[in-house]
Amino acid sequence: MITNTSLEYKGDLYPSKIVSYEHEGDSIFFNTDNKVILKVTVLRDSLIRFRFTTKGYFSNDFSYAIDKSQLHGYNFLELTEEETYFQIRTSKVKCKIQKADLRLSIYDLNDFLILEDELGFHWEESYEYGGNIVKMSKYSKDGECYYGLGDKATQMNLKGKRVENFATDQYAYQKDQEPLYKVVPFYIGLHNKQSYGIFFDNTFRTFFDFCQERRNITSFWAEGGEMNYYFIYGPQMQDVVTTYTDLTGKPELPPLWVLGYHQCKWSYYPESKVKEITSKFRELQIPCDAIYLDIDYMDGFRCFTWNKNYFPDPKKMVAELAEDGFKTVVIIDPGIKIDKDYWVYKEALEKDYFCKRADGPYMKGKVWPGECNFPDYTNPAVREWWAGLFKELVSEIGVKGVWNDMNEPAVMEVPNKTFPMDVRHFYDGNPCSHRKAHNIYGTQMARATYHGVKRFAYPKRPFVITRSAYSGAQRYTSSWTGDNVATWEHLWIANIQVQRMSISGMGFTGSDIGGFAEQPSGELYARWIQLGVFHPFCRTHSSGDHGNQEPWSFDEEVINITRKFVSLRYQLLPYLYTMFWQYIEEGVPMLKPLVYFDQDDTQTHYRNDEFIFGNQILVCPILEPNAVGRRMYIPRGEWYNYWTNELFIGGREIWIDSKFDEIPVFVKAGAIIPKYPVQQYVGELEFDELILDVYYKNGKEQSAVYEDAQDGYDYKKGRYSYLSFRNIGKEKELIIQVHKEGKYETPYSKYKINLIGLPFKVTEIEIDNEKIEFDEISFEQNNFLLVDKEFNELHIIGE
């Protein structure tokens, strides 16, 4: 037996005292006498990066998560040395770094302590794999709350939870189950009305403990790689989320049809079945823009092929579906069937594009086609090749979108459900094992898919959706929450997951409406539709193993509810499009949990159910069977019940009656909500009016409407219309001011204005200081008026 050697377990190791430092531009290096180096980089006054190494030098600085197109810069940076610490000061925060052990603390400029190391950075040598297990622990303040972390099936507030980040094919997952499909190692802390964020940019398996193991300590650690994290100062949660979203990137604008309703199942085949489904939507007048083809459209599940028995002429079918307003979206998985007669396999084999095991043979695993090899999407040449494979699907057959699945990556019939950890990856010139590349594999597949679809869809915009993702994936793809279950608990989970994804940078997300596994009751499906139409991505999807899940699979009442709420989504498309524009331009999440909306109200800190859709619509789903209403929290301010126009004063929890064909929906007083007429698909109708629901408020409120050609790239050349509305309410007057940006001319010529909540009877109307007769604007006593869109200021005067 060997004892007392350097091979013995050493336990945790810590930095020792600082012996030197260097200040180079925006970065400061602190060197300790045991070769630990801390590099502090000030990217913005409120965004600071902390990067540690234990070997005396840093490895190549590379990240898939960071959006390198973003330009960073600070206004003020000062380094001072005190007796026991160094202080870095920006125009927003002060960071103190202890000379004895590199522990750090961060304060605002009023010396309020925002964040403080407990043990700080420490590490454990990994003798099994090499490198370090890197660790960080910090103090948790009294009453501190934690949010974010992306795709987690648990309470909105993570206080008391421990979570794991390792992209996993988690079929029929349950509440609190860890880990799931996506990895977003970013959280938001909130205490004493101050918010901050931590983004731990480490792609190994990571863990976060929010005071579960020790009551007043929060910690995060990784099984390898560097301790490399970004601190983001608020003090508002809005500031934290926007800065994080800027750091990891934003998508481009999707075509408007993508924001419509989508229908999917595993699987719709043959062609006659697909057309039966699409025809039924049109017959029942339930709007729908996209139909999905799952793996059964392929020849033996071989990607980029068609089963000609099921789909003898796919180009003709796709064109006929398009004539009826349906865009076709197809699934593509990463597993390439090992088949010497299969052209995709042969190309990848010839080019040596498949992932290999440590000793040289190709990684082999079983998925839907049987034994497969898997492309290494971390190689730029592989991504370029993969992008080129979409030419036939997109530019020749006419497919409008691609759905990436099984890309955690998922492998069947193995204990860990994924690649062995010794699989090697190119990692864009930074060769590594699957331990490091696992969490980004799905994102790199989606990235390659995005570039292919974009290339061949041009001049139209691409649409890609992925199941697995790492921070930054939102630059390339939308997502959904994976293989959920048709249960009431999963309806509750879906509501929280999409809110959490929205404040974690990945706003373009939805759930499988109705549940993927098992079969929902009609009531559950109706309640899920009522929630799903208020999610950025809206799709019914189900497993073929558990019956049918089209709206007409249930009774007439459910069909009517589905039609009512999907039609409402289509009416709200300009509002939803504007939400998306603000997301890509300003990093504002499309869904806002109540704590994001009003962090100073402590009653919001533990709310799960209610959320703000866009900026001015409050939604609270019904999450229990047999409900005739529910208790919900109305945030501070004034809110109109959408269905009754009754005005409520917020800042309190109340009971709201709700029929089966309704859920509680409220509109912020002062809001101007744009609407289109109901269409069966985007672009079906030409209309000459934009409906504006104007909600009275005694005070001021800002609203906006973004519009463009609904597809294509002219909006990037300034051909868009961004209307800023200012709604000013007085005791006996309402003033609507309009300011337009952009060169796009909207096809309609008039606004149909619906005045809601006016406390006075209208006696006079002025447009741009000119008095208008009521009959000139079709004014009716039910407070509708039709006005030419070319006005700057509208006065509605009463008595």
From TrEMBL:
UniProt cross-references to Gene3D superfamilies, sorted A to Z: Glycosidases (3.20.20.80), glycosyl hydrolase (family 31) (2.60.40.1760), Golgi alpha-mannosidase II (2.60.40.1180)
Superkingdom per UniProt: Bacteria
CDD domains: GH31_glucosidase_II_MalA, GH31_N
Domain Glycosyl hydrolase family 31 C-terminal as annotated: residue spans: 587-673
Entry-linked Pfam families: DUF5110, Gal_mutarotas_2, Glyco_hydro_31_2nd, Glyco_hydro_31_3rd
Database matches in PANTHER family: ALPHA-GLUCOSIDASE, HETEROGLYCAN GLUCOSIDASE 1
Descriptive protein name: Alpha-glucosidase
